[in-house]
Amino acid sequence: MKLSKVKDSLKTLKTIGFKLPDGRFVPPYFHVTEVGVVTKDFIDCGGTVRSERKVNFQLWESTDYDHRLHPEKLLAIIELSEKVLNIGDYEIEVEYQGPTIGKYGMEFDGESFLLTSKLTACLAEDASSCGSPQEKAKVKLSDLNTKTEDSCCTPGGGCC
User: What residues does each domain of the chain span?
Assistant: First the structure.
């Protein structure tokens, strides 16, 4: 989800909810402690230099049970961050403290922001220098025709 979509979504809400991948909601007394841009420059396993930029939201909950962040306040924080930090319309990444700090993608279902699980992947799957073996085609043994005369794997076929 891009930052522009978050801003548009906030304009339609009366309250903000963040739903975790397991269906639980982040407690309503959360704080957004950071809005920023994260730049990652790296070389993938195939030797390609890459760069990515994401807008980062950090959600935090404390013992301030009366705290409620309203949509217009978060929108103001985002707009100030865009202006001061020169943030572009990048994808959102959310950090949230569970047993460890989790990083999530984000979507919107019309009522709540959904924190989505992120996965790793090889970015150089087509590069022979990657070192990751190509996946072999799966063949059903029942589909093999072993009853032909030129098959070597029949009794008396001479393959053993």
Answer: 3-100+113-119
